[in-house]
Design goal:
The protein is an alpha/beta fold and 251 residues long. It has a single domain, classed as Alpha-Beta Barrel (TIM Barrel), CATH 3.20.20.70. Helices cover 44% and strands 14% of the residues. The chain has 11 helices and 8 strands. Strand 7, helix 10 and strand 8 form a beta-alpha-beta unit. Helix 1 runs parallel beside helix 2, helix 1 packs parallel to helix 11 and helix 10 packs parallel to helix 11. The structure holds phosphoenolpyruvate (PEP).
Length: 251
């Protein structure tokens, strides 16, 4: 049996200046000192990445970005490349977060290209998938369609660098959390899809996170589920004490 190492990731969305980022990191690092069985990742906005990268150097705290451009370089005003993220100290990048899909028009073709751009630059993408409330009764169809289109052309070697985050859109930022059983059911289905489309070893090794209103009070029951390997946390990751409490729930 593969022991998958838990990953607790905090997506700050459009919150925190570089100064506020520094304040968070200075408060957070002592709280997670000595945590060695869980990967802990912060995902600040682009403008905080360089400063965050310098502050976490030499620690086990990991840094990620919220998005990237599908192109490596060129005339793409306002866009940020994978190489720029690596240079700031990022090891991870979110791809296909529901807010990018819903508010910024990232469709599955774009998500697939961004995934490849991340892998080409040596970044580890966290591919976000999930259904809206009105799609909830056909969640399997929705999520497997996203997996099929987003992972198109990614071979087994590439897949090893990918983490999947299942985030029911109706649970993001709403205070509504999927019950541990509901989250487990879909995440178990995602793992079976990986086994069918790659192989059993790939499925056993794949880290799959749950996201959607994870808080200190509900983290342990979600993380106790067989196929849930960690959490992608939005709101509760902005506060160093709350985020550290979620990390503790994964120990
Ligand atoms: C997210 O942004 O991925 C998320 C899950 O947000 P929240 O925890 O605030 O629901």
């Amino acid at each position: 049996m593969t022991m998958r190492r838990p990953l607790i990731a905090g997506n700050w969305k459009m919150h925190k200046t570089p100064q506020e980022t520094e304040g968070f990191i200075r408060g957070f690092l002592p709280r997670v000192k000595g945590v060695d069985s869980v990967d802990v990742l912060i995902i600040p906005p682009y403008t905080s990445l360089d400063r965050a990268g310098r502050l976490i150097e030499g620690t086990s705290l990991l840094l990620g970005a919220q998005d990237l451009c599908s192109e490596p370089e060129g005339a793409f005003t306002g866009a940020i490349s994978a190489k720029m993220l690596v240079a700031c100290g990022c090891s991870h990048v979110l791809v296909g977060h529901s807010e990018r899909r819903e508010l910024f028009g990232d469709d599955d073709q774009i998500v697939s290209r961004k995934l490849k751009a991340a892998l080409d630059a040596g970044l580890m993408p966290i591919l976000c998938v999930g259904e809206t409330l009105s799609e909830h009764d056909r969640v399997e169809e929705k999520v497997t369609g996203q997996l099929r289109d987003d992972l198109a052309g990614i071979d087994k070697e590439g897949l090893e660098k990918v983490t999947i985050a299942y985030e029911p859109i109706w649970a993001i930022g709403t205070g509504k959390t999927a019950t541990p059983e509901v989250a487990q059911e879909t995440i178990g289905m995602i793992r079976s899809w990986i086994a069918q489309h790659y192989d059993d070893a790939a499925a056993r090794g794949m880290r799959i996170l749950y996201g959607g209103s994870v808080k200190p009070a509900n983290a342990a029951s979600l993380l106790a589920q067989r196929d849930i390997d960690g959490a992608l946390v939005g709101g509760a990751s902005l506060d160093d004490e709350k985020f550290a409490a979620i990390v503790d729930a994964a120990l």
